[in-house]
Amino acid sequence: MSISGTRTLRRTTAPAALVVVAALVWPTTTGGPAASADERPGPAAGRAPTTARMAPAGPGLRAADVPLARGQETVEAPPFAMVGLTWRGGPRPVKVSTRTDGRWSAWRDLGLLHDGPDAATSERRRAVTGTDLAWVGRADAVRVDVAGPRPDALTLVLLDPSGAPTTPPAARKDTPGTSARKPARFKPRLRSRASWGAPRAWRTGRPTYNRTVQQVHVHHTVNSNSYGKDDVPGLLRGIYRYHTQSLGWSDIGYNFLVDRFGRTWVGRAGGAKKAVRGAHTLGFNSTSTGVAVIGNFETATPSSRVIGALAKLSAWKLRAHGRKPQGRVRVWSHGSDRYPAGRTVTLPTIDGHRDTSQTACPGRRLYTRLPDVRRRAATWIAKHR
Question: pTM here?
Answer without folding.
Answer: 0.83
